[in-house]
Predict the 3D structure of the following.
Amino acid sequence: MSLDPQQEINRRRTFAIISHPDAGKTTITEKLLLFGGAIQMAGAVRGRSKDRSTTSDFLKVEQERGISVSSAVMSFDYKDRAVNLLDTPGHEDFSEDTYRVLTAVDSALMVLDAAKGVEARTQALMDVCRLRTTPVVSFANKLDREALDPFELMENVEEKLNISCIPFTWPIGMGRTFEGVYDLLNKRVVFYQAAARGKANKQVYIDDLYDGTLDDHIGKEKADTLRDELELLGALDPFDPEAFARGEQTPFFFGSAINNFGVQELLDAFVEIAPKPQARDTLTRTVEPDEENFTGFVFKIQANLDKAHHDRMAFVRITSGRYQRRMKLRHVRLGRDFTVNNATTFLAQDRVVTEEAFAGDIIGLHTHSGLKVGDTLTQGEQLKFTGIPAFAPELFRRARLLDPMKSKSLVKGLEQLSEEGAAQFFRPLDGSDYILGALGDLQFDVIRSRLEVEYKVRAIFEPVSLGAARWITAEDPLVLEKFKRENRHRLYLDIAGNLAYLVQSQWALDYAAEQNPDLKFLSTMEI
Ligand code: G4P
């Protein structure tokens, strides 16, 4: 029996978790998977946050993928919803990768350490969500420890992130006096037990806050405090789904992920309020998820999912219609059709061959078909999804081979790794320096290690006196030609053949832009 596409699309919820390192992203991911029945045991998701402080540890962790392999996407069913949880790289050096993952979701879950409030990386990731108006749900974690006063915490979020917090649950005490949360939606107190490990916490429904039931359960003093606080909350704006969709309101939850507390309330509400698959823009038109024909785009390429075969997998977000096994897809950039026999669906710990998938889902395709990040797939229509940019790099290195005989392998490696978005590779118009550009230092380490392991090329990346880059375009080709003639030694081509201008400093860049008002100096480039 074939599934009804409309129904299937409507029940999908595709989201990512954003947080500052250590706030509890890994822990909450694990609890969500437990509730979704996708894993049976706590501890199955390895804490990739461990050892991230040093490069070598980080690389080792990256290489020993374990479950993190399939955790790039984790799909599970929960209460008749099909949930797709996308993993975002934890380390800030991979922010470009994170940005691309966030182009493939319809909402985000922001996890905060309740003692720390908004931290640097939370802020940066929220800025990214803003660029595409992604709705955000918030979870204040670690209430089992001393934390900021909940009002103070919400104020901190509102001030730093310019978004209104709408409490869906409210904490009763914190740290050693943490009693539980009041669930404002369901009007009940949910009592806290440390390390409940999947067991249900005791719940008491409170229809009337003043009839003594509340006092019987948490004592008069705490009941008074809660009543006072709830009264104050009553003065806040009510939840408005449209304001949430516009990124102006964030539903706010409190709990303790490690103790599996408050997470179920979060997940129950999340699958209800988080948006179903949303429309996406292309160069020519907007694609609605319930269109009949399949469309999708590649937002990520991951290598070495299977260590035995140095394979590379393209992660495709389906933007409309339905995928069925053995269907023919058009690779729009190459203008080529190919039949897909073995797309992959990612469960929490398993990968299975996809028989059927719908808008909102993520499927993995082998990259033999020449897929790279930013590519569009359709059933024949000439479309190009927009909004998947490369960012102008800020760090640069010159790649130098240790074995001069391996020059071809070096170029091939750098090209492929650049197509994955691991770093950006620039070739000079004149000369033979290969320049790598990145936003984070760790990107160079990953490239060096992967060149060695996968391409058997030993290279070093030397410092080079470059500090800023922009892509260059002009409306008038003559203006561009003149600039090219006069600046050949500073001009490079990126992997897609776009002209880029690399200089030693931001100052030099500003000066060049001032001197050449007819040129465009672009800090992002659609890929
Ligand atoms: P991340 O992925 O966002 O980086 O965070 P992760 O889940 O790895 O959590 C970071 C640390 O915070 C871990 O401690 C984790 O156990 C702890 N943690 C997560 N949720 C809670 C909570 O609700 N309450 C408290 N008190 N701690 C929490 P760790 O010491 O780094 O690791 P571990 O030895 O506990 O595994």
